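Instructor's aside before we start: the two examples that follow are unrelated to each other. I chose them only because their records fit on one page, so don't look for a connection. First example below.
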Amino acid sequence: MLTYPSINPTIVTLGPLQIRWYGVMYILGFLASYLLVKYQIRKKRLDIDIKVVNDLFLFLIIGLIIGARLGYAIFYNLPLYISHPLKLFSIWEGGMSFHGGLIGIILSGLIYARTRKTDFWRLADLVAVTVPIGLGLGRLGNFINAELYGRVTTVPWGMVFPS
């Protein structure tokens, strides 16, 4: 069995501000997705203005963060957030949900397409191919945080995490 390498989840601390690997993975995921969408538009010579992509990504990033946080609160710790609703804003304490993030992205994409009177499915096709990049980077962030281990295993390439 492999031993977890115990990576510090904080890259650097600047006074009260901590730059953490998990947040960096989010930023890298957003950036990679954005650049890949721009590349697709250029490569395929699609008739989509870059301003549309910029605005769309603003909506999607906000939708993802709000959805992921609300999803975590609703699916995993609702009593805490009902009794302390301001804790919803304490994202530095952790707690993001894939399911909530997915719902947030879909809703924000629908809102964007509807308000801009553009085809949601055309935009969704562009963004969908970039999803594995964001998910993969997110899982790397989870690994560094030593969370979401997966199932117990006895295979030689399995990982022993700290208890």
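Example two begins here.
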Amino acid sequence: MGLVRDRTFARTFGAGGELDAYNAAFVVPELLFDVLIAGGLAAPFVPIFMKLRAEDQQAADDFARTILTVAILVMAPVSAVLFVAAPLTVGFVAPSFGAAQRALYTDLFRIMCFTPLIFTVSIALGELLVVKRRFLFYGLAPVLYNGGIVVGTLALGGRIGIYAAAVGAILGALLHLAVRLVGVVLSDFRIGPRLAVRTAAVREFAALMLPRMAGAPIEPLTFQFFTNVASAFIAGSISSVSFARNFESVPVSLIGVAFSLAAFPGLSAAAAVGDRRRFVALLRTNVLVIAALTSAAAVALFVVSRFAIELFLGGGAFDAEDVARTSLLLSVFAFSVPLESLTYPFARAVYATRNTVLPVAAGVVGLVVTVAATNALREPLGLTAVPVGFGLGIAVRLVLLVAIVAVRVRRFPQLAAEELSRLA
């Protein structure tokens, strides 16, 4: 559905200044949402909930309600501050924008300030769906989100232009929340406010969440950096990078993210009882399947990159120059598909042992490599330095994660006690 969204954007708006402003307007809200909610919540929630559920179902449910309530209380004022501070962010995100693009960016930014609050509730409910293994409702959410954007663009694009995409993003976020809400309501969990913050589980959650919060900006910062780099090239460069990255992320999401997510509850359960053999077997199977499927996907994406861009995006306002630029970027991004996909099972394997510091460290090193490589290569390679730098950073991150997992598996029997005492 993400490809349908991109096709709709390309045909309706082309790869020009309006779509550049739209893509740039996502950066800061997404960054703060990832820092405060998405990144920090996802990693520690599943292992702690699984541990509590094995001991006391009521305690596990109270823990989940508390995390949901706190997340909403945090994100509501943040969204309000973002709305007011919108004009101040453009210099950070896209310093090369002219006056007209800056004004458009600010308007779009303010419309999309509402989405982080909606996603806060949806992400929290999504973690409940993971532990209850209701993956259908979890997986439908992003499809409906992109569907909302497409509907908004097609229905309103002729009347209000690029603003239709922002309105569609609000609609999509509401659909994202609605389907997950249905999934949770159909389970045995009862939604309700709760603020039982003075419990051992919440203290452990906070201890594990803080390092993950520090690492959550890594991906948004990476693409904020790419937006900054691309804004210095011709109009449409930001959109071309965004389109190419979105195509590359399809096999990563369908295979790397989805398969590692399905294995996460099992890895967490094995880690909770110290079952090293089961833990290693689950991880090995997950890694081998992901590696095989994503390697094939990378080759296919490289071979058909130009055809795919022409088929899905070509025509309308998306001209031949846009096709050539975007397909070149996609062909280079394709090499990162298996590398990026494999970071997910290894990162989740570390999270399952209730450690969030080490994956963050690996991510920071990868980001530094990405920035250094892109800056070093932008002169000889031009815009192509973006996917090359991305691939080099991801490769370094993957190597570090593999080494971290190997060390932690060897020390498996005493990990839980050591981590809890060190984090206390």
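The CA atoms of residues 40 and 213 lie 5 Å apart.
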